[in-house]
Structures are given as C-alpha cells and as structure tokens.
Specification:
Blueprint lengths: L2 H9 L4 H4 L2 H5 L4 H10 L4 E2 L12 H14 L1 H4 L9 H15 L8 E4 L2 H12 L5 E6 L3 H8 L4 E8 L2 E2 L1 H13 L4 E6 L13 H14 L2 E5 L24 E6 L11 E4 L2 H15 L4 H12 L2 H27 L5 E2 L7 E5 L6 H11 L1 E2 L1 E2 L12 E5 L5 H21 L1
Helix pairs in contact: 5-13, 7-13, 8-9, 8-12, 10-11, 14-16, 15-16
Bound molecules: pyridoxal-5'-phosphate.
Length: 416
C-alpha cells in the first residue's frame, strides 16, 4: 500500500459512521459479490455468478459499428443526450417489441436506462412509500429486493413452483391484504426463465395475474432479461402483451443479448409512468450513455440483434444440457432441481436440515462455488436451496463442478 495512504488509514481521525445517513448505515454489500471476490482468486469452479459468457459478445460487429458511429454520428454520440434516451433507439426498440412480442408500442412508451437495474431503483423512487406493500416471488432476484428495500416497502412473498408464481396463493394474499386495509402497489415478477429458479410463469397464470391486477388495482413490474435465451420449448408472450390498461411496467435489457458492459436497458410503460420515471432519472444521471445508445441503435436497426440471438442460444444450449445431465448423473437421492427451457440458472433444493450457507465453506474446500438460496428470499426463511449458473464456464467444467457439489452434499447428508 502507498505509504501516505497507510498513514492516513492508521490514524483514522474521522468518525466515518457519524457522517452516513441512516439509510446508508443500513446498506449491506451484496453477499454474492463478496463471495465472488473470494472465488475469483482461487482454483474453485464458480457456478455462482450470473455472468454471460464473454465468447458471446459480438466484438467484431461492435468494432465496425463503433467506427461508423464515430465517423457519422460523433455529434450525437459524444454529446449529452435527452433523459428519455436516443430517439432512433427508442423507435427501433418499439418496433422490435412489436415484431417480437406482438405488443403495439410507440416511442413515448419507452425510456432508455443504464441497465434494468437502474429501472428497478427508479421504480422504487417513483412508486414506493414506506410501508407500501410490494409483492415479490419467493425466491426472487436479489438485487431487485435490495433496490426496493431502500424505499422501505413491506414485502409480501408468494411461493413459486415449476409454473412460476403461485397465483392461487397470490389471490388469497390479496384478499387478506384488502381486509387489513393495505394497498398493494405492485407485483414484481421475473416472468420468464426466472432468476434464480429458471422457471417460467405459465400462460394461464399470466392472464390471471392481469385479471387480479385489475380487480385489486395494482401494477405489475415485469422484469424480462432472459426470455430471448430459449433453448427448448415454445415461446410465451410477455405479460405486457396482455396489458390493455397500462398496468404493466416492462423492463428489457441489452445485457444478455448484446453485452452488459454497455449498461443499457429500457423501460416500457404507460407514458404517464415514463414521464415520472424520466424526472426521477434526471436527478440520477441526466441520461444513459449516449455513445452506447447510438451503437445499440445500429445493432438493433441493422438486424444484428436478430442475427446474434440464435448464436447465443447455440452457445448456451450445450451448457444447459451439460448441467442437467451432470445433476442427473451425480446428485444423491432427495435432491431436486429445476429444468429450465432457457435463461442462465438452475435452482437446487436439498433435503430439509441442510443449510447451504453453512455448506458453502465445505463446497469451496472441494473446489466449487454456488450461491446459497437464502438471500433470494425477502424474508430469508429458506435455508436448503442454492442457485447454479450454467452460462459462464464450459461444459466439462460444469460437469466437474456439479460432481464436486454432489460429493459435498453427499457428505452433508450423511450427517443429517
Ligand atoms: C432479473 C434481473 N433483473 C435485472 C438484472 C440487471 O440487469 P442489467 O444488466 O440490465 O442492469 C438482472 C441481472 O442479472 C436480472 O437477473
């Protein structure tokens, strides 16, 4: 460490904590990120992260487009942009959503954001008062919980099965909440190839969810980063497809179909909601990175996106298959897992009594890492689950990782 910095840290003249806001004092680092730091530096096979494979990044196309953008559009690409985003990109996305999902859309219903993660924060800012009920899947996307948590909602968790959120249980819960006089602001769902479970909400449940939203007057936040990554089965339209009132706030992202490094995503919602989120975003970052937006525009407009998606699918399908085969081959009796038709994750449930957070150290000692499931539950009340990623490492490594994990679980089972 630099001598001067060493001296400064050693003396610690400031009472650092006293300067932080109460909310900042409550913030905790994401467990996954802390964990990944640990694994990055060792020989451990990591099935933990949620990263796309860098081999899928369309580097040559990006090089070509970036050159063109700098030659032809430097004035726009290197200048501040509007908060809503680069208009040609918003138009191109509106057309793409219409073509791909049959959702009639205009550019006024689209705002470009710095990844859908930013949209989750903006949704918190714009919709959540402290104490408002926000309904989430159990389990759900960890960083959505963290984004919303800042705005102090009351989370209500709805269990999941192989067809997504249990809408029958949701209905019961809505009735209970109504009797208690509580207002539900929105239901948050990762409807297709969910993170962390990999499961997809059935068509029937999607339609029922819309009906319930009308009946009980709440919004639906549909976070959809994975539906394009389908390796088997038939596509199901997004919930947004069935939205005739503007109740669905849809989040899309370039992270899994282009490159996460661009930090670009989009919100598609009623113009009234877009307008408020636009005002909120002004205070956050003025606008999403214009250089990236102009590149993304050409990527969509010139058809590269449609050409590239099948390549990503072909790259990931064998990895998904390798993981499912290895689970079948190595896992002991009593262990269950999901069989996703797409996305990036498999969810594993171990017999009751095994705490996957406690088991982690032993797994790492055996040379494999996963994400313990507990953090994906708003109420942290489930201990025996874990998430595996199959997109980042090659097939043979996946196989070896699952084998090591199965050995770890077998040893734990002997103790239970
Ligand atoms: C369900 C879900 N929502 C949002 C995100 C954030 O994605 P982005 O890179 O668009 O911010 C992720 C990333 O893994 C995710 O899994």
């Amino acid at each position: 460490m630099h001598k001067k910095l060493e001296k400064k840290l050693a003396s610690e003249p400031l009472n650092f904590e006293s300067f932080f806001s109460e909310k900042a004092l409550q913030m905790k680092a994401s467990e996954i990120r802390e964990l990944l730091k640990l694994v990055e530096t060792s020989d451990v096979i990591s099935l933990a992260g949620g990263l796309p494979a860098p081999e899928t990044f369309p580097v040559d196309v990006i090089k070509k487009i970036a050159q063109e953008v700098l030659t032809e559009h430097a004035d726009k690409a290197l200048q501040y942009g509007t908060t809503k985003g680069f208009t040609p990109l918003r138009l191109a996305l509106a057309r793409w959503m219409e073509k791909r999902y049959g959702i009639p859309m205009s550019k006024v219903e689209i705002m470009i954001v710095a990844g859908s993660q930013q949209a989750l924060d903006l949704i918190g800012r714009v919709f959540i008062n402290p104490g408002d009920v926000v309904i989430v899947e159990a389990p759900t996307y960890l960083a959505a919980l963290n984004a919303f948590k800042y705005y102090e909602p009351e989370f209500v968790s709805i269990p999941m099965d192989h067809d997504g959120m249990r809408i029958d249980i949701l209905e019961e819960k809505l009735e209970e909440l109504k009797k208690e006089g509580k207002r539900v602001k929105f239901v948050y769902t990762v409807s297709t190839f969910q993170n962390p479970m990999g499961v997809t909400m059935s068509l029937e449940r999607r339609k029922k969810l819309i009906e319930l939203a009308k009946e009980y007057d709440f919004l639906i936040v549909e976070d959809n980063p994975y539906s394009e990554l389908r390796y088997s089965g038939e596509p199901i339209p997004p919930i947004k497809h069935y939205d005739d009132e503007g109740r669905v706030i849809y989040l899309g992202t370039f992270s899994k179909i282009f490159a996460p490094g661009f930090r670009l995503g989009w919100v598609s919602a009623h113009p009234h909601f877009i307008r408020k989120m636009e005002i909120a975003k002004q205070a956050v970052d003025l606008c999403a990175n214009p250089f990236g937006q102009v590149i993304a525009w050409k990527y969509v407009e010139e058809g590269h996106l449609d050409e590239h998606i099948p390549k990503i699918i072909e790259f990931y399908r064998p990895r998904r298959d390798a993981m499912l085969e290895a689970l079948e081959e190595f896992m002991p009796d009593g262990v269950e897992w999901t069989r996703p038709d797409g996305g990036m994750f498999v969810w594993v449930t171990l017999p009751e009594g095994i705490d996957t957070k406690l088991m982690m150290e032993k797994a790492v000692a055996k040379g494999v890492a996963y994400v313990p499931g507990e953090a994906f539950f708003a109420h942290r009340d489930v201990k025996n689950t874990l998430r595996l990623n199959f997109t980042y490492v090659p097939e043979d490594t996946i196989r070896e990782g699952v084998k090591r994990l199965a050995e770890t679980i077998e040893e734990e089972l002997r103790k239970v």
